[in-house]
Design goal:
- The protein is an alpha/beta fold.
- It has one domain (9-120): Hypothetical Protein Ychn, Chain: A (3-Layer(aba) Sandwich).
- Helices cover 34% and strands 21% of the residues.
- The chain has helices at residues 23-36, 64-75, 83-88, 106-114; strands at 9-14, 40-46, 78-82, 100-103, 117-120.
- A 5-stranded parallel beta sheet has the order 4-3-2-1-5, sandwiched between helices.
- Strand 3, helix 3 (83-88) and strand 4 form a beta-alpha-beta unit.
- The radius of gyration is 14 Å and the shape is globular.
- The protein starts with 8 loop residues before the first strand and ends with a strand.
């Protein structure tokens, strides 16, 4: 049993479009705050319209993609893009930004099973 003050492993499910909803930016701020308080991040799973964060050719005016890349590099967690959602939006392996990986929905199930919390944005 985990002690009540022990750090949590938190995984995030990001679904909203970067420009329309701001979900990827809010998730990034949440992840940073969680890390700052001693928790750890296991995986960020980008799904639905949020997969465009990992498209190297999509606009990143707000710096959200770069923020995710830097945070993941600093803390060693995975930036995962849903293969089906990406394909529906024309994102393929060749257009994925460095540090992002294309994965199946099984990775989301695994995140839900192995994390202490799965937080959705």
């Amino acid at each position: 049993m985990r002690a009540s003050n022990a750090p949590l492993r938190i995984d995030l499910l990001v679904q909203g479009a970067p420009l329309d909803t701001g979900a990827p930016r809010r998730a990034l701020k949440f992840a940073q705050a969680a890390l700052d308080t001693g928790h750890r991040i296991g995986r960020i799973f980008f799904y639905k319209d949020a997969v465009t964060v990992g498209d190297r050719f999509a606009s990143d005016d707000a710096g959200t993609r770069e923020g995710w890349v830097q945070l993941a590099a600093q803390h060693g967690f995975e930036l995962a893009i849903c293969v089906a959602a990406a394909a529906r939006r024309g994102i393929v392996e060749e257009t994925v930004a460095p540090a992002f990986t294309i994965v199946g929905l099984g990775q989301l199930v695994e995140a839900a099973e192995s994390s202490d919390r799965l937080v959705s944005f």
